[in-house]
Amino acid sequence: MKNARPAEIRTQSSASRFRNIFIGAIFAAVLVIPKILRLRRNPRAWAAFRVILGLAGAGIVIFPLGLWRSYLLPVAGLGMFIAAILLPPAKPDTTVDDRARALGALVVVNGGRYQPGNAGATAARLFVGSEHIWALDSHLQPLLVIPIAEITSATAERGEDEWHLRIRWADRAAEFNYTGVFGEHFARVAESTLRGVVRPALPVLPQRRAAGA
Predict the structure, then answer these.
(1) Phi first, then psi: what are they for 35, rounded to 5°?
(2) Helices 72-86 and 43-62: crossing angle, nearest 10°?
(3) How many Å separate Cα 10 from the centre of its chain?
(4) What mean pLDDT is predicted for residues 123-143?
(5) Which residue has the higher pLDDT, 80 or 148?
(6) Which helix (H) or strand (E) is 110 found in, with range?
(7) What secondary structure letter does DSSP report for 83?
(8) Same structural domain for residues 148 and 186?
(9) Helix H segments across 93-152?
(10) Which of 25, 67, 117, 146 has the most CB atoms less than 10 A away?
């Protein structure tokens, strides 16, 4: 009975240490993950990170075996090595903010889904500038460019099971479709944004009669 109590205390102490380590690891991951995601935008830095992670994992697998019997560290090292191999390649450097700055866009709004010609419908974003509106796909590639000076109307309308944003300019028209619970909200936001940059037509003033006419 005397030996049972110290053994129970050691077990509780080990469980408490493991719980603290686990909570600390989760907290550290929450802080590190955003930095890793930003690092992924740089192809060289991301490649270097993957190499370092793989070498560190391999070292952790081999190093403890020569010192003491530890099964936890080799498993963790093996996981790091496999993660370094399976990590996806770096993301493209271009982000929505970068693209907006390059185009000179003042605001970016949800464009719903747009079907260019006979191609399939694709998710779109509307980059609204002072002279043009660009509709870009999910890869930030242009689908459509609309001169603001030629826009005659931008209207959000309810459909059967979705909302439509219809833009008319010159002799052309484009339709962007919004579905889901927030479909109306996104369509209304896009409509008000476009109307905010479209220049209203100047009123036609009646000509004054010449004096003495």
Answers:
(1) -70, -40
(2) 150
(3) 48
(4) 92
(5) 148
(6) strand 107-114
(7) H
(8) yes
(9) 96-103
(10) 146
